[in-house]
Amino acid sequence: MTYRHILTLIAVALCATLNLGAQTDVEKADRDFAEFRRIQSAGNADGAAYGRLRDAYAAYRQAIADTRPDTPERQHLRAALRDVFPYLRQAAYYYAAANDQAMVLRFAADYIDLSLLPAMGEDRLNESPGYPVLANLAATNIYNRGDYQNAILYFQAYLSSGDTANRELAFEGLARSYYELRNYDNAVYIAAQGAATYPRNWNMLIVGIESAGRNGNDTHMEQFLEKALAIRPGHNGLLEYKGKMLERMKRYDEAAATFRTLAAANPSSLDYACHLAFDLYNSGVKAMPSDSARMRFQEAIPLLDDILANSPYAVNVAHALAVCYNMTGQTDKLRQANATLTALRAPEVAQESVPAEESAYMPQVNYTPAVSQPVAAADQPADVDINIPIAKAERADTYVMIIGNENYKYFSDVAYAHRDGKTFAEYCRKALGVPADNIRERYDATLSEIREPLRYLEEKCRMNPDRLNIIVYYAGHGVPDVARGTAHLLPTDASGTDFESCLELDRLYSMLDEMPARSVTVFLDACFSGATRGNEMLFAERFVEYEVEDAVAKGKTVVFSATTGKQTAMAYDDKRHGFFTYYLLKSLQESGGEITLGELAERLTREVDNKAFDKKNKHQTPTVNASAALGDEWKSRRLSD
């Protein structure tokens, strides 16, 4: 027997051993799966049973990767995995009921991973019931862990399902994942696809702008900027980015118009003045010879002169100023400018010489975008308005009612109440995972418009007794009934003296108590002393602040109020929110929505009072009013539960 024959026999024996081992693993998986199904059909499935299911799944998955297509073994394994598939979803739900988030994520990922196996491609498993929910759950959890490469797979799996409930967030997460991996081309592509459908998604537009800036794609950047500026027309960062983009594209007239706006809004900015001056200069050079060129040079002169006064060694500024004097026929000024150039040891500008277009000056372009940072201008987002965390799971059992009353018929407006309500709605949707269909928002609401979402919540709780979590948020005026010592929410069309047209707090709490909800949490960014956010009095004839009797929370209700009885709920003007709402949002942002109500109460009391005293020299101390029936149980509750 030759050496080659010996090697062949060894190889055959080794393959037979490996095949026998694989066959043994599959046979064990068949037994595990059969035992799981027996236990499950008897209604006794538990953690151990689902452990058997996962062992079977892992063995089948490994084996199918090692089998050739069009073999009996492959067909057996495909059939087995098709049978396993719905039970993986069932396992995720089992652990969700047990509040074991790690196991929920494990089985959700298994469920999606199975659908993505090449061998299962023709089975169209992504059309199965519950697929979008688990795909979105896996994607958001893995994204939040910073595993962007795998998050991409699950976001794509969700989008492939055709579901629309979380489609906007999936596009946003997918675009951000590519950005974090520095795959800017794909980030631009996905952001463009998402922005085409959701043109007002600020976070997605910012990802697109940042990514386009990173890969130098000014064509796409212009499209993103156009949409972003439609949302926030006066945004300094966006306008700066636009101006610099137009400079790179040599569209100097448009760049000058952009920086003219910025310079007018920021008159002390030498940088914006410099951009405007050089854009006018460059536009003039490009437009020669024409009267419009002379006009541009003339407009640039005082800007360049001022810049040179602040930066006397800037040779490019001195040279541009000399050219402008020359092109506007100001011989004496040209002579003085040339003297400055000589002092700077730079060549003079010859009289009546014509600058070539290649002499255009390009200010330094900053590719590090500033648009993600909050700007203190009135129409810019505060730090809590952006970078809203994404929930680990959807919470279909939570329902939210939001009232933002800002514009009153008979009283002063409530500063930022719309903004407070809308941003809180965003946190409910993103940070807490509440489906958009579960959120009822009403702005500048009348009494009937306040009662309508309350009736909706009442009906939903009746249909789902002891299963739903209710969140109620109100920003607006409160008003005291001095004769009775009671507090009321003030609809926007109420007179404030006809208390039948107002909603008494005690009545609100009774309505909430009558709902068969699992929990109720109320946030009131209002005061009931007769004062406003601006510290005026609601009624001109009232020169004192009143202290009303606290309405007592009932049943399962916990109420967070912006103030104590005699205090004023004030506005945090720097952040364009109420103090109370700002720190509520900040707490949700920094905790990812996982803060307990006890921790939230401590933080609101401490930080609101401190900041209000710093900014307004007045105390504003939030209070918590929990039903006595709850004891201290409420302190461990989370809005994300």
Strand order of the largest sheet: 2-1-3-7-8-11
As a percent range, the share of strand residues is 5-15%
For the report, how would you describe the main beta sheet?
A: 6 strands, mixed
Uncertain residue segments = 9-21, 363-379, 530-548
Number of strands: 11
Helix content: 40-55%
Global outline:
flat
Question: Please, could you describe this protein's structure?
Answer:
The chain is an alpha/beta fold. The chain is built from 21 helices and eleven strands. The protein has a six-stranded mixed β-sheet with strand order 2-1-3-7-8-11, sandwiched between helices. A three-stranded antiparallel β-sheet has the order 4-5-6. Strands 9-10 form a two-stranded antiparallel ribbon. α3 runs antiparallel to α4 (101-116). It is flat, with a radius of gyration of 33 Å.
List the main descriptive attributes of the protein structure presented here.
alpha/beta; 6-stranded mixed beta sheet; 641 residues; 21 helices
Please outline the helices and strands.
Layout: H1 3-41, H2 47-65, H3 72-97, H4 101-116, H5 131-144, H6 148-160, H7 167-180, H8 184-197, H9 202-215, H10 218-231, H11 236-248, H12 252-265, H13 270-287, H14 291-310, H15 315-327, H16 331-343, E1 398-404, H17 417-430, E2 439-443, H18 447-463, E3 469-475, E4 478-481, E5 486-489, E6 503-504, H19 505-514, E7 519-525, E8 557-561, E9 571-572, E10 577-578, H20 579-591, H21 597-616, E11 623-626
Parallel strand pairs: 1-2, 1-3, 3-7, 7-8
Antiparallel strand pairs: 4-5, 5-6, 8-11, 9-10
Helix pairs in contact: 1-2, 2-3, 3-4, 4-5, 5-6, 6-7, 7-8, 7-9, 8-9, 9-10, 10-11, 11-12, 12-13, 13-14, 14-15, 15-16, 17-20, 20-21
